[in-house]
UniProtKB/TrEMBL annotation, chains A, B:
PANTHER family: LACI-RELATED TRANSCRIPTIONAL REPRESSOR (PTHR30146), LACTOSE OPERON REPRESSOR (PTHR30146:SF153). CDD domains: HTH_LacI. InterPro entries: HTH_LacI (IPR000843), LacI/GalR-like_sensor (IPR046335), Lambda_DNA-bd_dom_sf (IPR010982), Peripla_BP_I (IPR028082). This is LacI family transcriptional regulator. It comes from the Bacteria. Residues 16-70 form the HTH lacI-type domain. SMART domains: HTH_LACI (SM00354). It comes from Streptomyces rubradiris. The keyword Ligase does not apply. Keywords: DNA-binding, Transcription, Transcription regulation. The lineage of its organism: Bacteria, Bacillati, Actinomycetota, Actinomycetes, Kitasatosporales. It holds the Pfam family Peripla_BP_3. Residues 342-355 have a biased composition (Low complexity). Residues 342-362 are annotated as: Disordered.
Amino acid sequence: MSRAETSRRGSRPGRAGIRDVAAAAGVSITTVSDALNGKGRLPDATRRHVREVADRLGYRPSAAARTLRTGKSGLIGLTVTTYGDEPFTFTEFAYFAEMARAATSAALARGYALVILPATSRHDVWSNVALDGTVVIDPSDQDPVVSELVRQGLPVVSDGRPAGSLPVTAWVDNDHEAAVLGILDHLADAGARRIGLLTGTSTDTYTHLSTTAYLRWCERVGQDPVYEAYPAHDPCAGAVAADRLLARPDRPDAVYGLFDPNGTDLLAAARRYGLRVPDDLLLVCCSESTMYASTEPPVTTLSLKPRRIGTAVVQLLIDAIEGVESEQPVEQVIPTELIVRTSSQRRSPRTTVSPPRTPDDR
Amino acid sequence: MSRAETSRRGSRPGRAGIRDVAAAAGVSITTVSDALNGKGRLPDATRRHVREVADRLGYRPSAAARTLRTGKSGLIGLTVTTYGDEPFTFTEFAYFAEMARAATSAALARGYALVILPATSRHDVWSNVALDGTVVIDPSDQDPVVSELVRQGLPVVSDGRPAGSLPVTAWVDNDHEAAVLGILDHLADAGARRIGLLTGTSTDTYTHLSTTAYLRWCERVGQDPVYEAYPAHDPCAGAVAADRLLARPDRPDAVYGLFDPNGTDLLAAARRYGLRVPDDLLLVCCSESTMYASTEPPVTTLSLKPRRIGTAVVQLLIDAIEGVESEQPVEQVIPTELIVRTSSQRRSPRTTVSPPRTPDDR
DNA sequence: CACCTTGGGAGGCACGTTTCTGCATGGCCA
DNA sequence: TGGCCATGCAGAAACGTGCCTCCCAAGGTG
């Protein structure tokens, strides 16, 4: 059977294979492969000729075949823990969305594409996609997905310090304790006498570290802890918890909320109780939303810098995939940023509107 | 060379191939494949035996080989137009994040994974990933990416009515004209005499359709148009444009803002000019953020239902991939939802806080 | 003239599946 | 007893690349 016949039989009308290019250019498959990939010893004339023929035929190399042959797919996974049937929770939404966006950008800039896969996904989805490596967000202790991945020899980089002895390749995280302590000191400096905390009931690392840091700070300065915990994945529960916190007999004169919607919820609750912010109540919450720059009053927020984390995580992962021994340490701590606005400044409240923030370096 | 030798040479220590399973189970490759995929004529005993051996060896079928053989990768692309170097713009961020989340969920529920790819990505990324089909968001007229994809015979479903004669397989969109007209009527009903518009300078379909609908409505009711346009991708420009709109000599007594941050920006501008909302100024903006439920006052928002759109788009795409002739029409119009809050109700303003919204069906 | 080097390119195997085809066996019926 | 069908599996051909090996011709060198 002639080569022309072979190539004609296998391919559907729309798709040209490397064999078709070779036949049309009058060269061998090897030459086509070498010419298009910049390898081998070929004169420029041949290289250009092959490229031109390939363009004319609209040739696109088969990603599946290349992956099978080289063992590299150019795909990295982004694994998130799921609550219910949604890929990510409501409260972490802004953080996760920003982080995923930055990760996508960073991956694309290095020639990789990013696939979002929930940790508890149907098994067939996981085995249907060839991954070169995976980013896991806040993996739980003894996470079965991570173990399985490292068993397959794939690099795994974690957003969030891995609990227990999870064998991740690298990890990136904030210093949550330092962030909470910084905020509590900031509130105390602004005149707070009793600082309350709005926290979550779930057992993830972020909630746990932040809460214990708060409790230790209270112990150190001799304040009774005043906090309300609620299921953070329930968007309605936050408003109720904020209300409960301000309804307590030992009502705090300053509150830090660990989750994104806590700021508006606390503002609304303060209005209901006739509390002026910041005069009667100082407010800080952890959020990535720029809307807090133009609320009444503007609310001081702690940014966890999801964009920097997403970028760093992907860089570490791709370095590991490509065997680059990164100059960066395999454990990176990204500093948080406290964006101080009116809600946490009792002295000399700014009357001017705080300048709009640039979208970069968030 | 014996089969055992063959299988031992090719595979790395960590990964077991189908040949290893066949050898360990004492059957042929065909039998393993049939047993694991539920095909062929095999007694249950053989099937169970093969499955057990495969589990014991930790066998995971190679996605690349399967894709190469079957032509189906189980991956669908989500293509977004880029402004600058980021995958999606700042103003569309909440909409896009929600839409992408819903699309991811819907894809996973049907056994597919979703890859986010910017339209103007480096070409090697596009050719490195095997896609079964693609969702494009708001494709421009004569979009080269779409043409290329349909030339390859891949189904393409569009979020947003395709401009020109773009040969998409199906599309999903809101009725933006009807939405704008509904809002303008709503504001007029609430007592507005001169309604202003905060719009964008870019030429995408959403901005264009909404603005022309506004202009036609003005013509019909005999009102002079009062609008300010600003580059929507610039997060700072919105605040300036909101300020400009309220500083005009023909200051409107009601404003509709086309983009997500317009609500807080307009609220801040109104405070600067001493305008009470809703008494002196009625306010509506298009947003997916639940924060507008607890601003002061709560702001009426138009939701474009990104979750329903993301789900619908993916369903249509997978139906097309799998050759299902969908009962649904290939052109779906998703209704928008006007969430009426205090900012657009001059009569009987609600003093109670509007109930927190459920996260579903947004 | 024999030998080596270097450029230019072809042959063919392997990656790990899926699946088409076909072989053997045994039971059933005419 | 011979044909026939159902059952239970094995062989082997693809799928489309990448790359290792090898071949050939043209010079250069002793």
